[in-house]
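Title: Comparing notes on inverse folding

I've been comparing how different people in this forum approach sequence design from structure. To keep things fair, I'm posting one structure and asking everyone to reply with a full sequence. Here's the target:
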């Protein structure tokens, strides 16, 4: 805190403005501004391209003001104007350099259409002046937003964010709601040919702002007070009604969302299954496994070998082969666990990584081609059948994934608070102390590997049945990294965090298709921001949250103790 206050607020404002302008220049030169210059957020008012090069200036100006915490309203506005002017000056400098030098030889997107967007379609001189003026306006707007009372400020910011998001996702929203009957026509009336209509934007803004204003005004302990005052009979009823509503919504999602989004949900659920298993190995037991895809491959290949008529003269059904696939994965988990019992940290990660690559290369080898199909893989894998009903579409297989996730999540939840789960956590925190307390670390480590392999194998069997084929190239190292990343993003050791992490990591790229070829750039930037702002994960375990915010909580306790001491002294 002392470092922040020792620096001049004006210097902070200029630095933040320059950073915002540099980010805007970067986004301009990679082509995002031109690509989205015709994509309106509010039809006829402003485009996504303008948001892309003006947004960083606004955000950095707000960040500088919030970080400096100036004492007077005049200082707030002046800091915002200065930061915005600095950001606008960077963009103006790009225009001037582009006028003097042919930047297109180095940056292919430094073209006439880009300069036309940055000058707002005006002449060069007027466009440069407008860039400075608009930058200053963005900074002044950031200062004005900061001066608004927190409750109103939150409502306004959320309203603006949602208007931008809904306007950008116009095509996606219309596609999803096409089959919603009369409601689809109401939703369609909010949109123009590109983006929201002005009336639609106002409706979205008012609804979202009112919702956040209402939420911000609720007392902090309102929900808790209601729970305490309600009778013991009411609480279970409300809880079961909530659970029932969630289950009903999950059951209705495929017909509501359609085939495309059902396929996305299938992928998300598949990674949730693997994430729940790896969360036991890494999150609960603290065993870093980078070859986790091996168990996924073993489950898929076992299902393929036993059910495909290409490799089996008497193929089994999906349900007949499922127990054998599960047993094969559990045995593989134990086999992997035995040689790595004494390894920890990086050494364990390297060995498990090698195990994953060994399984993939064995499946790819010509030596085992008669059994595993080699590079051609295995085709004609059986799909699950319930009675005479065959589950063979994305929407039908969604329910199989949902059932698998429900069962596995329940098992993981029960294990977490059981004696086994607490033993895993003791090993994770300090294995030497756990051994000294009499814990059989060999048995519990093998149990963690076997349980994680079991869950991953179930995901592999459903994956093989969904595609009716399995190939070695689908079982690469990146799958293990993706599963590990979703655990970190959601929160290490947190079961709800696995669900959130899978939705963010596997669902976001599909939702970001509106950004076309820039979606992974946006996706990567969002992940970086997420890790900087929430290092403990989006839905962390309580212990993990406490570990990462221990200093903040201690500082808060110290401030509270000083305030109490001052209050006691004043009463005397």
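Reply #1:
Here's my take.
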């Amino acid at each position: 805190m002392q470092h922040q206050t020792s620096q001049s607020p004006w210097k902070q404002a200029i630095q933040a403005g320059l950073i915002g302008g540099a980010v805007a220049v970067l986004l301009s030169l990679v082509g995002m501004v031109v690509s989205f210059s015709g994509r309106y957020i509010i039809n006829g008012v402003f485009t996504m391209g303008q948001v892309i090069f003006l947004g960083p200036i606004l955000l950095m100006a707000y960040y500088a003001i919030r970080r400096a915490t100036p004492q007077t309203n005049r200082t707030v506005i002046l800091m915002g104007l200065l930061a915005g002017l600095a950001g606008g000056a960077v963009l103006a400098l790009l225009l001037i350099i582009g006028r003097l030098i042919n930047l297109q030889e180095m940056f292919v997107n430094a073209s006439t259409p880009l300069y036309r967007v940055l000058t707002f379609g005006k002449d060069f001189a007027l466009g440069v002046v407008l860039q400075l003026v608009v930058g200053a306006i963005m900074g002044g707007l950031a200062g004005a937003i900061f001066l608004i009372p927190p409750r109103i400020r939150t409502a306004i910011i959320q309203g603006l964010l949602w208007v931008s998001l809904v306007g950008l996702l116009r095509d996606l929203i219309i596609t999803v709601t096409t089959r919603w009957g009369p409601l689809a026509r109401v939703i369609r009336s909010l949109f123009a040919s590109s983006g929201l209509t002005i009336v639609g934007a106002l409706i979205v803004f008012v609804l979202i702002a009112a919702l956040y204003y209402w939420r911000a005004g609720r007392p902090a302990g309102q929900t808790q007070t209601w729970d305490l005052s309600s009778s013991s009979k009411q609480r279970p009823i409300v809880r079961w009604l909530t659970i029932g509503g969630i289950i009903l919504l999950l059951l209705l999602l495929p017909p509501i969302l359609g085939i495309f989004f059902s396929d996305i949900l299938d992928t998300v659920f598949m990674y949730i299954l693997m994430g729940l298993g790896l969360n036991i190995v890494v999150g609960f037991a603290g065993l870093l496994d980078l070859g986790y895809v091996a168990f996924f491959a073993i489950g898929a290949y076992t299902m393929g070998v036993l059910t495909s008529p290409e490799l089996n003269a008497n193929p089994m059904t999906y349900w007949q082969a499922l127990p054998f696939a599960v047993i094969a994965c559990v045995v593989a988990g134990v086999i992997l666990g035995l040689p790595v019992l004494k390894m920890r940290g990086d050494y364990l990660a390297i060995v498990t990584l090698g195990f994953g690559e060994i399984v993939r290369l064995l499946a790819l080898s010509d030596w085992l081609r008669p059994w595993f199909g080699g590079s051609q893989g295995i085709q004609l894998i059986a799909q699950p059948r319930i009675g005479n009903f065959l589950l063979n579409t994305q929407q039908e297989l969604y329910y199989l994934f949902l059932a698998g996730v429900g069962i596995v999540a329940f098992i993981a939840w029960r294990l977490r608070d059981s004696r086994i789960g607490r033993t895993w956590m003791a090993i994770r925190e300090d294995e030497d102390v756990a051994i000294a307390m009499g814990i059989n670390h060999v048995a519990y480590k093998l149990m963690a590997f076997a349980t994680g392999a079991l869950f991953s194998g179930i995901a592999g069997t459903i994956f093989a049945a969904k595609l009716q084929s399995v190939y070695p190239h689908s079982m690469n190292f990146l799958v293990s990294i993706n599963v590990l990343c979703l655990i970190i993003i959601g929160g290490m050791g947190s079961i709800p965090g696995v669900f959130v992490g899978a939705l963010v990591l596997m669902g976001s790229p599909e939702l970001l298709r509106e950004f076309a070829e820039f979606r992974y750039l946006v996706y990567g930037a969002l992940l970086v921001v997420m890790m900087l702002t929430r290092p403990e994960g989006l839905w962390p375990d309580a212990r993990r949250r406490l570990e990462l915010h221990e200093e903040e909580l201690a500082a808060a306790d110290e401030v509270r103790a000083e305030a109490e001491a001052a209050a006691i002294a004043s009463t005397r």
